[in-house]
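Thread: "does anyone have the structure for this chain?"

Original post by V.I.:
We have the sequence but no experimental structure in hand. Need at least a predicted one for the grant figures.
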Amino acid sequence: MTAIDDDDHAKRKPVHDIGQPLTLLSVVELRERIALLQGEIRRLEADIAGKQDSRAAADQFFRR
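Reply from O.Q.:
Generated one for you, tokens below.
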């Protein structure tokens, strides 16, 4: 493997496809996937909260 290949591999973020086989992943890789998915869950929950806040503000505005 050349240095360029090593650099390319090091720059790649882990990607997880829902339902993909897990048998070939190491414990470290599985933990990375868990952290990745937990971060995505936090991002989704924050977006939900923002949308709910916007909706509540709009509801308040149009009720008056």
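V.I.: this helps a lot. The mean pLDDT is 87.
O.Q.: and Residues 50 and 64 are 22 Å apart (CA to CA).
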